[in-house]
Structures are given as structure tokens and as C-alpha cells.
Design brief:
219 residues; alpha+beta; 2OG-Fe(II) oxygenase
Length: 219
């Protein structure tokens, strides 16, 4: 007499949510944003104007960390769009954990651009002092996933997930990272604890992104 197979419950614990979308107004703001960025870059006194983690960055220009605070119509519109997007994402993620009534409101507290030249990269890092981060791909240049050219790499936050590998760990992935190909107009949003990098970029065109950190309030 065989026993009936036990019921098995699946619990998907400790996931890391990432979100990808496309700015529907990208074509309308791209040229003005790029013009503003290149004008800023032309007047920079330092390649890394933020003076943050200078040795982790090579062959790229970075603004100060208040880029989206500029009093320019295209910057104001970009910030409005990104904060509305962030608010929608964090509300969806946290809906079951917030009290009924208040809504989540995102505020971008740090923002900057990167203009990456041929051979440029940004070493592995994470973003402290915020809860959600994002990257807006204004101009991906010649980035390509198959060649791992200029892609953003996100690293598995489960520190010991790769301490042993056999057939039973295939679900973890074979490499402990996830590569994201920059596509023009796309925005990727991720929790601040995820370590990530921008792999070396090679191309005649610049790779241009706007990055941002945010905090969330209930209102």
C-alpha cells in the first residue's frame, strides 16, 4: 500500500524585484536632454564632477549629483516622469505592506549623467542612503548584449548562493549575475542594495545615461 504523495507548498522567498519600461515621450525629450548634457559636460572642471568613487570610473564624464534639480523645462519634465514612474513601481511592490489610505510618493534625492567614451566602464558598486534607484538610457551607442559591450551587470545578492554547484542548483543560474542590454528610451528600476556595474563600452558613439536615487514617503 503506497502513501499518497504529500502536498508541497512553494515559497518564493527573498526575491529581488527589478522593473523595466520605456519612456513614451523619449523621442520628444531626447534631443533637448542630450543638448543640455553636452553643454554641461563642455563646462565641467573635472571629468567626475561628483568626486565620488573616482577610481571606479574610467573614460567617462559624470555630473554633480543634482542633475535633475536644474531649472530647465526638459529637466523638470524628465524628473516629473521619473518620480511618477518610481511612485507607481514602489506602490505595486509594497501594496500589501502599507496601511490602507496613504499612497507612496517618490522623491529623487540624487541624480547624475554619465557620458561614457570608447573603453569606458564603471566598477561594481551599490547606492547607499536611498531605497530605489534607476537608469534611463538616453543614448546606448553601440551597446550589445551578445558581445557584453557596455551592458549593465547586476550581481546576485545572495552572498553564498554559489558556494556549491551541482544539478540541484541549476535554478540559481550559472554565473551569479544578470546582464541588461541598454536600449534607447528604456528605464530600469532596482532596489538600492543590488550591486551592479557598467561593463567596458567600446564604440565610436557615446553611451549616455541618466541615473537617479530616490526615497519614498507615504502621503
Amino acid at each position: 500500500m503506497y502513501s499518497q504523495a504529500p502536498e508541497i507548498e512553494s515559497i518564493n522567498a527573498w526575491t529581488s524585484p527589478l522593473f523595466v519600461t520605456t519612456n513614451p515621450d523619449h523621442e520628444f525629450i531626447k534631443d533637448d536632454l542630450l543638448a543640455y548634457i553636452y553643454e554641461y559636460q563642455k563646462n565641467q572642471s573635472h571629468a567626475i564632477d561628483s568626486h565620488v568613487a573616482i577610481t571606479a570610473k574610467h573614460q567617462l564624464f559624470e555630473s554633480k549629483l543634482n542633475f535633475l534639480e536644474a531649472d530647465s523645462p526638459v529637466i523638470i519634465e524628465a524628473r516629473r516622469m521619473l518620480e511618477e514612474l518610481l511612485s507607481a513601481v514602489v506602490t505595486e511592490v509594497n501594496r500589501g505592506y502599507w496601511p490602507e489610505g496613504p499612497e507612496g510618493e517618490a522623491s529623487i534625492i540624487e541624480s547624475w549623467f554619465h557620458v561614457t567614451k570608447d573603453g569606458g566602464y564603471h566598477d561594481i558598486h551599490s547606492h547607499p542612503n536611498c531605497s530605489w534607484c534607476g537608469i534611463y538610457y538616453l543614448e546606448p551607442g553601440e551597446c550589445a548584449l551578445d558581445a557584453r559591450n557596455g551592458v549593465n551587470r547586476f550581481y546576485d545578492p545572495r552572498i553564498n548562493a554559489d558556494h556549491y554547484a551541482d544539478a540541484g542548483t541549476a535554478y540559481l543560474g550559472e554565473q551569479g549575475f544578470w546582464d541588461f542590454e541598454p536600449v534607447e528610451g528604456q528605464i530600469v528600476i532596482f532596489p538600492s542594495y543590488l550591486k551592479h556595474s557598467a561593463l567596458p563600452y567600446f564604440g565610436k558613439k557615446d553611451r549616455v545615461v541618466v541615473a537617479f536615487n530616490s526615497i519614498i514617503d507615504l502621503v
